[in-house]
Specification:
Number of helices of chain A: 21
Number of helices of chain B: 8
Radius of gyration of chain A: 28 Å
CATH topology of the largest domain in chain A: Rossmann fold
CATH architecture of the largest domain in chain A: 3-Layer(aba) Sandwich
CATH superfamily of chain B: Pyruvate-ferredoxin oxidoreductase, PFOR, domain III
Strand order of the largest sheet of chain A: 3-2-4-5-7-6-12
Helix content of chain B: 40-55%
Shape of chain B: globular
Oligomer: heterodimer
Order of helices and strands of chain B: EHEEEHEHHEHHHH
Helix content of chain A: 25-40%
Chain lengths: ~650, ~210
């Protein structure tokens, strides 16, 4: 990642973005991890020391953007990275930094997830660029992911504005060939200049105050006008196609690859024009006017909301006297689905319908036969906790405690691997699941409903990283407002879902340096909660502790369930126990347990052997955690300590 | 830079599929790196994240003399499917198969939770073989996981499958390319075992005739 300018490498979209950041000479990079964005900071962290760079896993996305902005105010180039949901966390600060402006180049990278492949939503953040008035770039392939990221810092400094680069899963987590550029060697020093006049953009304090708001806002709009003018000639906006196409396709981001392939497969190169935009806000008006004038029919292909489509429609209406009346196809008329990811087939279908040509069908007999075979031959794979996952044991304890308590108690869920506890693998324990930190926020609300007849106990769960990100304010709220709730912190020693990034509970940071820890139990006690710490693999203690907490009629109890993630580098591939089923004891269906281990506990390392009529351990899959030995009512599962 | 050995299709569409945790992403990256070093342009589309937790995983490789293609292969357009898990082969063929597609299929099932629970049935291997043959132009069945366990680690089934892919001759992949690629990315202590796994995959296809 560090050298070889001029050479071509097969890299992930996120690695290409990291290379662009390095080529821009960025010195501070901060982020909160989230799929599909996490690799960007990981790659930078590996080379940070040698590139004289500071990288940070910040406590959340708003703080990450503030950390990056501080470096910008001190004259350095800086970047903040997040996924689409993090944009909402950062949005409050973003509004203000967009308004006031920046000094060193400041870029916000948002990696978004159309279709929600690894997210609980498919929200997008392009509308922020319009709403908060800052420039938006969308790379259309891997080379552009690098080149555009690098250019974004030049643009930011030229305008004095934060710039957003938006990627999507199909770029960030896809790979392609990229030719690397030069890495800069000069290293500016950091200095925050604040002695100039109040509103001086280069020497004054960086302050937003009531009063001069409209003056600063007008400046911001002038920056946007300059950005639009620059975008008119940007090489990231390209047209391919005939001089007078029958249909003009306007697209951006990964969708441009789907459009190109669809046009090629259908052989429409002479009929359809493709205008691929890389600068998607503010719109380059002259360029659009030239291309819209060529053709009456326009298809807009984008993910997910009709952002370009509606802004192009508004522009076409304003320009109708010059360019004529246009007919738009896209999300609003149903030419393309309004939800989910797009792909070459969906674009082909839209092109076929609009141009009234025969769709490219698959071999129909083959497709029908393949579907029939699939229906009987490929049982669905519902998501589950990994073998040896502490969450399976934790939710086993929570599920049993709530069942024994018998007051229709439930779990208010949060964001992480443990979100899967809404599914059978977590015994369908979660009954609410929304944003980061919402589990305890919701529980705090439920815990105040007793005057209205509410008598169900509520357990909120959160992960260790989530605790720092957004649960702490909810905990203060619950304690201060005397809500009667139990918080279970599922502490698996890292941000496990996204790849074990460090968080404030660990004595190490993104750069691998030793740093002070902020301990969750200490924090909770200091706030006034009643705190216990257990190993979730100790099922009886966990369950009894939870029952005591549920019985407590007053205040906030916190149970920290501490056990390292089974996939963590410390643990992965290291079995603690060799597990075996004693066929003399296990009688499966004859036992009366109703195959308890596989039917109810459902660890993927367990199986049922119908020939022998006993449970069995799948030695390839079993992680050797030993928990299932405690759940077998007959004691038929044995654990043997490994030497 | 353009290699002498041309592609059978341009782009050549390869899908590597399996279940989260089987080393699918690494296998696709190895094949991609080998082809990229030969001078081809490679695009790899991957689905991971939530799907790592017991779900189906799929990598789409587009290998082309020159250019960028969609990281999602169009439906019905796969030329080769490498399945690290047998029922996953059927899941891929449903959307991306065609009468000419070729399939390399590891025969070791990873049972879905619904099967472990007893709510769903996992098909017999004999049926799986018959169906994969019916839905493909050519199919190879390999005991990759069993061999990997003999070599010391079940995860090596992915490398064995890469060796098998090389031995089919579908792409100009060789042992030297493989050694070159893993030599750059892997700890020295692991290289020998990976080479053994690659060779084992090659031998499986050769002995299958």
């Amino acid at each position: 990642m560090e050298n070889t300018p001029g050479q071509r490498h097969l890299v992930m979209g996120n690695e290409a973005i990291s290379r662009g950041i390095l080529e821009a000479g960025v010195q501070v990079a901060a982020a909160y991890p989230g799929t599909p964005s996490s690799e960007i900071i990981e790659v930078l962290s590996q080379v940070a020391a040698r590139r004289h760079m500071y990288t940070e896993w910040s406590v959340n996305e708003k703080v990450a953007l503030e950390v990056a902005a501080a470096a910008s105010f001190a004259g350095l180039r800086a970047v903040a990275v997040m996924k689409q949901v993090g944009m909402n966390v950062a949005a409050d600060f973003l509004l203000h930094v967009a308004l006031r402006g920046i000094r060193g180049g400041l870029v916000l990278i948002s990696c978004e997830d159309p279709g929600g492949l690894s997210s609980t939503n498919e929200g997008e953040s392009r509308p922020y660029a319009k709403m908060m008035e800052f420039p938006l770039l969308e790379p259309g392939d891997f080379q552009e992911a690098k080149d555009m990221t690098r250019w974004a810092f030049d643009l930011s400094e030229r305008l004095g504005s934060i710039v957003m680069v938006r990627s999507v899963t199909r770029l960030s987590h896809a790979s392609g060939n990229v030719t690397f550029g030069q890495l800069p060697e000069d290293r500016p020093t950091a200095d925050f200049n604040f002695n100039g006049a109040m509103l001086d953009p280069d020497t004054g304090p960086m302050i937003n105050l009531p009063g001069p708001v409209t003056i600063i806002h007008r400046r911001q709009q002038e920056k946007m006008a300059r950005a639009a003018a620059l975008f008119e000639t940007s090489p990231f906006n390209r047209y391919d196609g005939p001089e007078r196409p029958e249909l003009l396709v306007i697209t951006a981001s990964a969708c441009q690859l789907y459009c190109r392939e669809a046009i090629e497969i259908l052989g429409l190169e002479q009929r359809v024009g493709l205008l691929k935009l890389g600068t998607t806000w503010p719109l380059p008006i002259q360029l659009l006017q030239r291309h819209l004038a060529l053709c009456r029919r326009i298809l807009v292909v984008e993910e997910v909301l009709p952002f370009l489509e509606e802004n192009l429609q508004a522009f076409a209406a304003r320009a109708a006297a010059r360019i004529g009346i246009k007919q738009f196809f896209g999300k609003n008329d149903g030419a393309l689905p309004s939800t989910g990811e797009l792909n070459p087939d969906l674009v082909m279908a839209a092109l076929s319908r609009i141009l009234d040509i025969a769709p490219m069908g698959r071999d129909d007999a083959y497709r029908r036969r393949a579907e029939a075979i699939f229906a009987k031959g490929a049982p669905p794979r519902e998501l589950t906790f990994c073998p040896g996952c502490p969450h399976r044991a934790s939710f086993w304890g929570i599920h049993n405690a709530l069942a024994m308590d018998n007051r229709r108690g439930f779990v208010s869920g949060d964001i992480g691997c443990y979100s899967l506890a809404a599914l059978p693998c977590g015994f369908e324990s979660l009954k609410t699941l929304h944003a980061m930190g919402s589990g305890l926020g919701m529980a705090s609300g439920f815990g105040k409903l007793s005057p209205f007849g509410f008598d169900q106990p509520v357990i909120a769960v959160c992960g260790d990283s989530t605790f720092y990100h957004a649960v702490m304010p909810a905990l203060v709220n619950a304690i201060h407002n005397d809500a009667n709730v139990t918080l279970v912190v599922l502490d698996n020693s890292g941000t496990a879902m996204t790849g074990f990034q460090a968080h404030p509970g660990l004595a190490v940071n993104a750069l691998g340096e030793t740093v002070p820890t902020v301990e969750i139990p200490d924090l909770c006690r200091a706030m006034g909660a009643k705190v216990r710490v257990c190993d979730p693999f100790d099922l009886p203690v966990t369950q009894n502790t939870l029952l005591e907490m549920l019985d407590d009629p007053q205040g906030v109890n916190v149970l920290v369930l501490r056990q390292i993630c089974a996939l963590s580098p410390e643990k992965k591939g290291k079995k603690r126990y060799d597990m075996a089923v004693d066929p003399q004891i296990c009688r499966a269906d004859d036992c009366g347990c109703n195959r308890f281990c596989t039917r109810i506990f459902r660890c993927p390392g367990l199986g049922y052997d119908p020939q022998k009529g006993t449970a069995r351990i799948d030695e390839v899959i079993c992680a050797g955690c030993g928990v299932c030995a405690d759940i077998c009512p007959s004691g038929a599962i044995e654990r043997k300590q490994r030497s | 830079m353009n290699p002498a050995n041309p592609l059978q299709h341009n782009p050549y569409n390869l899908i590597i599929t399996g279940v989260g945790g089987q080393g699918n992403v690494l296998a696709s990256r190895m094949v991609g790196d080998m082809m990229s070093q030969l001078g081809y342009d490679v695009i790899i589309g991957e689905t991971f994240g939530a799907s790592q937790r017991g779900g189906s995983v799929m990598s789409h490789l587009r290998i082309t003399a020159k250019g960028v293609y969609s990281p999602q292969i169009p439906f019905g357009s796969a030329h080769m499917v490498v399945a690290l898990e047998p029922s996953e082969a059927l899941r891929v063929l449903k959307d991306y198969g065609n009468p000419h597609v070729r399939v390399i299929c590891n025969t070791r099932p990873v049972q879905p939770v619904g099967v472990i629970r007893g709510d769903l049935d996992y098909p017999d291997m004999a049926d799986l073989r018959r169906w994969v043959r019916e839905l493909s132009g050519a199919a190879w069945f390999i005991q990759a996981t069993d061999m990997a366990m003999k070599l010391g680690n079940p995860i090596l089934a992915n490398v064995i499958s890469v060796g098998a892919l090389a031995a089919t001759g579908a792409l100009p992949l060789s042992r030297d390319h493989f050694e070159n690629v893993i030599g750059r990315k892997m700890a020295a202590g692991k290289i020998e075992m990976n080479l053994q796994a690659f060779d084992a995959g090659v031998a499986m296809i050769r002995s299958a005739g």
